[in-house]
């Protein structure tokens, strides 16, 4: 049984209006379903519910607004279905466009910050280690838990906004320290340093790890000295799309894993250890592509949204050349502001890059075609593109994506994976 | 390896834990998925068709079926897809889950708050899900699965 305090019961009964009451009932029902003994306060929220999937989500948000609901903690917004900055053209029909716009407006009306990014942690939303928060969007959740060391479960659409309105969340899962300990160990120290030092390695090991872990918490050893924030972001996003990973530890890198034993809660003795080999990763690398041959019809990068560093790397690799294929670079308005200020957005657009802000190419119709091959350096795009866009996926490093876009056909450096 | 022997008719009715009680009893053919699925990116919210290119049940339609889930994975937008399926009249007749998945079930909790009729969600062990595959059963909001 889930225990609600008198305050929480009053909230559910409508003390602060029908919108807050509905939110409280949703949080309480989620707590019951998960077997949580009660609710805990949360310090912030990241809201994944403002992406249009159909009219139902808009109607829900407007019901909350109509009931006077407001967020009670700082809350950032994940992507919507429209590019409100106006970098790209979203091909939604008029009804859907209108409903998507209404939905985004409803979430802003509840007091959420219009960040419109799936990488809120690179747009200034970085809760401290050990803080309980309620975050949605699987890549943001896994980054928040693993890299920031804050504590959140994988809050789905609707529960995220409900938690933000009542500033509470069910007390279960990854909010509890005992559930954050590693239950298995991955030893990556046998992989070549060249592989571990390449950007393209991280979505691949993330995919392998997600398939291996499911929702279990593990610790990876042997990546010290190779991880960067953007690599951890790519790892987490791939692991959360291939599996149900909400938290991982990397020894010597992530805050709850100064070493393997600490990540395991004091001792790793008796835990299963998996020694990762090149061929195991080659399988994951191959799995990220659903197309073969050397045809590429479009390129998409930026899932999760590109950081400013990643845009700079794109610019460096292009080295002034123009692309021959449609090339979509998805990012948040926090990065658009920076590249507008120094002129690099205009320069890259002249070279043929299409920036996509506030949204991305697998969640809303932006691509000019619904068949063919989409090349990407993102494990998450590679996972979702076939189902959501109709295009087959071809995975490669960012450098491969750039060279393919310039050449107009697949150019891929496979030697790291042989 | 569990062999998928058909359920002895004597095994039905079968009483299960109710995760969420639906609007009423519902009858449908059991679609027992062979792999866990992510609803977002895996199921078309307009039709209920399985669209995940890597899923072994790709092409199957979950609308009106008693959907047996060996697990759920992936995106936290699964609840939005399920809410949309309910609103569009393309939801499964019932959901059978090995474990309660708060992300997915939230779609039903919200649908109920909106006043829309929802399917029942029951906890059913994986072995039982396999044995029920392709049978036509009636799922009651009290947790009974009958032939």
Summarize the structure.
The complex is a heterodimer of chains A (418) and B (147). Chain A is α/β, with parallel strands linked by helices and 418 residues long. Helix content of chain A is 39%, strand content 13%.
Keywords:
heterodimer, A: 418 residues, alpha/beta, Aconitase, domain 3, 3 domains, 5-stranded parallel sheet, 4-stranded parallel sheet, globular, B: 147 residues, Glucose Oxidase, domain 1
Summarize the structure in words:
- The complex is a heterodimer of chains A (418) and B (147).
- Chain A has 418 residues and is of the alpha/beta class.
- Chain A folds into 3 domains: 6-177, Aconitase, domain 3, CATH 3.30.499; 181-286; 289-411, Aconitase, domain 3 (2-Layer Sandwich), CATH 3.30.499.
- Helices cover 39% and strands 13% of the residues of chain A.
- Chain A is built from 16 helices and 14 strands.
- In chain A, the strands form 4 sheets. Chain A has a 5-stranded parallel beta sheet with strand order 12-11-10-13-14, with helices on both faces. In chain A, strands 8-7-6-9 form a 4-stranded parallel beta sheet, with no helix packed on it. Chain A has a 3-stranded parallel beta sheet with strand order 3-2-4.
- The mean pLDDT of chain A is 96.
- Chain B has 147 residues and is of the alpha/beta class.
- Chain B has one domain (9-146): Glucose Oxidase, domain 1 (3-Layer(bba) Sandwich).
- Chain B has 3 helices and 8 strands.
- Chain B has helices at 78-87, 102-113, 126-132, and strands spanning 14-15, 17-20, 26-32, 66-69, 94-97, 120-123, 136-139, 144-146.
- In chain B, strand 7 (136-139) and strand 8 (144-146) form a beta hairpin.
- Chain B starts with 13 loop residues before the first strand and ends with a strand.
- The model of chain B has no long low-confidence stretch (mean pLDDT 90).
- The interface between A and B is large, with 46 and 41 residues.
């Amino acid at each position: 049984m889930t225990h609600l305090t008198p305050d929480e019961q009053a909230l559910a009964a409508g003390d602060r209006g029908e919108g807050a009451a509905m939110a409280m009932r949703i949080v309480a029902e989620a707590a019951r379903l998960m077997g949580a003994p009660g609710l805990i306060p949360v310090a912030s929220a990241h809201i994944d519910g403002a992406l249009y999937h159909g009219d139902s989500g808009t109607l829900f948000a407007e019901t909350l607004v109509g009931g006077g609901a407001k967020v009670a903690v700082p809350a950032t917004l994940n992507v919507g279905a429209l590019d409100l900055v106006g970098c790209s053209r979203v091909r939604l029909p008029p009804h859907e466009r209108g409903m998507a716009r209404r939905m985004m407006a409803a979430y802003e009306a509840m007091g959420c910050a219009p960040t419109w990014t799936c990488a809120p942690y690179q747009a200034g939303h970085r809760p401290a280690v050990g803080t309980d928060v309620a975050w949605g969007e699987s890549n943001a959740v896994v980054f928040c838990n693993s890299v920031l060391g804050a504590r959140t479960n994988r809050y789905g659409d609707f529960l995220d906004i409900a938690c933000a309105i009542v500033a509470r969340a069910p007390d279960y899962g990854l909010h509890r320290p005992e559930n954050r300990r590693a239950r298995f160990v991955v030893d990556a120290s046998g992989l070549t340093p060249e592989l571990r030092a390449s950007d393209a390695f991280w979505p691949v090991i993330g995919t392998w790890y997600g398939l291996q872990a499911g929702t279990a918490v593990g610790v990876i050893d042997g990546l010290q000295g190779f991880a960067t924030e953007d690599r951890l972001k790519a790892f987490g996003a791939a692991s959360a799309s291939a599996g149900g990973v909400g938290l991982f530890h990397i020894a010597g890198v992530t805050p709850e894993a100064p070493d393997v034993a600490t990540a395991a809660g004091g001792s790793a003795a008796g835990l299963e250890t998996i020694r990762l080999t090149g061929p195991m990763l080659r399988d994951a690398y191959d799995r990220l592509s659903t197309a073969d041959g050397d045809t590429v019809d479009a390129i998409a990068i930026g899932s999760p949204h590109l950081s400013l560093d990643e845009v700079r790397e794109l610019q460096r690799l292009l080295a002034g050349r123009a692309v021959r294929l449609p090339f979509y670079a998805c990012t948040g308005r926090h990065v658009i502001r920076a590249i507008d200020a120094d002129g690099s957005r205009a320069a890259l657009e002249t070279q043929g890059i299409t920036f996509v802000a506030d949204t991305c190419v697998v969640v809303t119709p932006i691509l000019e075609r619904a068949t063919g091959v989409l090349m990407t350096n993102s494990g998450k795009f590679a996972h979702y593109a076939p189902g959501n866009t109709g295009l087959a996926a071809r995975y490669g490093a960012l450098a491969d994506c750039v060279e393919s876009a310039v050449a107009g056909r697949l150019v891929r450096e496979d030697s790291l994976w042989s | 390896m569990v062999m998928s022997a058909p359920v002895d008719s004597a095994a039905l009715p079968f009483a299960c834990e109710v995760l969420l009680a639906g609007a009423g009893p519902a009858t449908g053919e059991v679609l027992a998925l062979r792999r866990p699925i992510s609803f977002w990116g895996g199921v078309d919210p307009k039709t209920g068709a399985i669209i995940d290119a890597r899923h072994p049940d790709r092409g199957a339609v979950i609308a009106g079926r008693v959907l047996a889930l060996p697990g759920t994975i992936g995106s936290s937008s699964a609840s939005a897809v399920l809410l949309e399926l309910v609103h569009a009249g393309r939801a499964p007749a019932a959901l059978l889950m090995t474990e309660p998945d708060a992300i997915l079930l939230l779609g039903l909790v919200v649908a109920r708050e909106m006043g829309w009729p929802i399917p029942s969600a029951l906890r059913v062990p994986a072995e039982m899900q396999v044995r029920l595959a392709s049978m036509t059963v009636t799922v009651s909001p009290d947790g009974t699965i009958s032939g």
